[in-house]
Amino acid sequence: TRPEYDGAVLYGEPRGGRIPGAVHLEWSTLLDAKGAFRPRSELEAALKTKGVVPNKENACYCTGGVRSGFVYFVMRYLGYPRERNYDGSFWEWSSRPELPVEK
């Protein structure tokens, strides 16, 4: 969520914020009102507006790797070949004090 990304809400992680260089994309915006995927063109446009394009390697993450897994699936469904899901996500990243965090 935006509050998580901004570091305002913690869900068990030791530090709030985001991985440097991250962009916020709310996973639920990829669904229509009935909970189904939006049309392909809308999914591609939503990703492109965030700088997520097929020829660039992207890593999805959230707090624990579940919601980001959904976004990873959408990108693979669209044919993006170089996607990754950071399964440790921000719980892991923020638990390592040597790694930087942005707010």
Question: What overall geometry do the principal axes of the alpha carbons give?
Answer: globular
Mean pLDDT: 95
Residue share in β-strands: 5-15%
Assign a percent range to the helix content.
Answer: 25-40%
Helix-strand pattern, N to C? HHEHEH
Note down, in words, how this protein is organized.
- The chain is mainly alpha-helical.
- It is built from 4 helices and 2 strands, in the order ααβαβα.
- The protein has a two-stranded parallel sheet with strand order 1-2.
- α3 links the parallel β1 (58-60) and β2.
- It is globular, with a radius of gyration of 14 Å.
- The mean pLDDT is 95.
Task: Give a brief outline of the structure.
The chain has four helices and two strands. It has 103 residues and is mainly α. It has a two-stranded parallel ribbon.
List the keywords.
103 residues, mainly alpha, 2 strands
SSE blueprint and pairings:
Layout: H1 2-5, H2 40-48, E1 58-60, H3 67-77, E2 83-85, H4 89-94
Parallel strand pairs: 1-2
